[in-house]
Amino acid sequence: MATIRLGDDAPNFTAKSTEGNINFHEWLGDSWGVLFSHPADYTPVCTTELGTVAKYKPEFDKRNVKIVALSVDGLESHKGWVDDINETQNTSVNFPIIADEDRKVSELYDMIHPNASDKFTVRSVFVIGDDKKVKLIITYPASTGRNFEELLRVIDSLQLTAYHKVATPANWKNGEDVVISPAITNEQIPALFPKGHKEIKPYLRMTPQPNLD
Description:
This is Peroxiredoxin. Belongs to the peroxiredoxin family. Prx6 subfamily. The protein has 213 residues and is of the alpha+beta class. The chain has six helices and eleven strands. The strands form two sheets. The chain has a seven-stranded mixed beta sheet. Strands 8-9-11-10 form a four-stranded antiparallel beta sheet, with helices on one face.
């Protein structure tokens, strides 16, 4: 069983999906990606999750993020489940769902945790950068629905901090002040952060979010 850690290359794979065959890296192209797994088709919590993601897809598109789901059931089962999702969640599923009957992708991404279930995937989330590296891993138990507002918040932070020498503080939301990297000296701050900064402690310096007008 593979073990994937932050900063690792996201393993590539080819798989069937509800939108045709996917070569994962080719499908991602120069986009960021979210790969998230579901224990099985026709499960109640996951039905609400897939419907929610369909509604949030414009927000992911705005951030250049492609979404792909996965379940260990087959393609025909997926198609029937999509009909149920669209009906019960008042939406239209607008992203691919991978059919992983042989659990090849599930095992590649360590999505099966034997102490939780020796058959079904746990509810994993992987955020993958445009460099094909793993930026975030979250694993949820089957009983707790995922918070996609939080996932968008984290993607905003990841994309901001990938290109600016900042970090985001607790509960940060897009548009709020950010932390200047400790590696930046006070002498460097005016050139890098012309909006100014506030020093709370020598190691805690705040500045307005640099990628906003």
